[in-house]
Amino acid sequence: MNAASAGTPASARRLEELSLNASGAFQSLLYDGWLLGYRPGPTKRLRCVNAFYASTLPLEQKVDHCVRFYESIGLPAIFRMLPFSHPPELEAWLQRAGWESFERTLVQHSRLDALPSVTAVAGEVSMLAMPEWHAASAALLTVAPEALAAQIERSRSYPLPHAGAVLERDGEVVACGMVKLEGDHAGLFVINTAEQHRGQGCGRAIVAALLAEAVRRGAREAYLQVTAANAAAIAVYRHFGFVTAYDYWYRARRGELG
Q1: Which of 5, 75, 120, 248 is the 20 to 30 A CA-CA neighbour of 48?
Q2: Among the three residues 81, 105, 129, which one is the final residue of a domain in this structure?
Q3: Which of 198, 211, 200, 147 is nearest to 137 (CA)?
């Protein structure tokens, strides 16, 4: 797989740092320049190896250490492959060793100098403080009660500005998303529309509301992550000027791709 070339390695690495900061309570160990994330849950980038920084130990030794670490905590060993992963030969080494690649994801960014207008949709987008947003969006996102309590607790202790948007129809939340800010950057996360309401402008209205909130709070650039196969979402983001800065994908041993 080839990375997109829109961003320099330095700016791409900064987007990675912003994204990880935005995750809130990112549980990780630092091992010779690699971040070993171990927060259980559906978000793979928070429970995988992020090979960010310069590496000094032998590669085989490091990979073996990671495999044993994840086995010890009951998680599959997954590597997130970036254009600037270290060492540069990591990708080829894992491929030769039989680690399969999957789930290519695009990291996109956009300047917020001039946001396009968005045609109103039936229903109204509301901006909510995050504890309220988690409760309001839980049904749409199928969040279990015990997971919801943990999300609310993390949100309350998160140190940077953040807010959520919901769109309701007939008293039901049918679309949602959140924005997290750090300096002049705004990250968009958890953009979701109920299946029966897709193609009706709901997602576009949510993105417009989040970006407007970001601008109101002083943001000048926005970023997000979207799987490369999600053509509908990519089209929505393109409307707001999002272009791909780089891509990433995962590698795992056969039978451990999730």
Answers
A1: 5
A2: 105
A3: 147
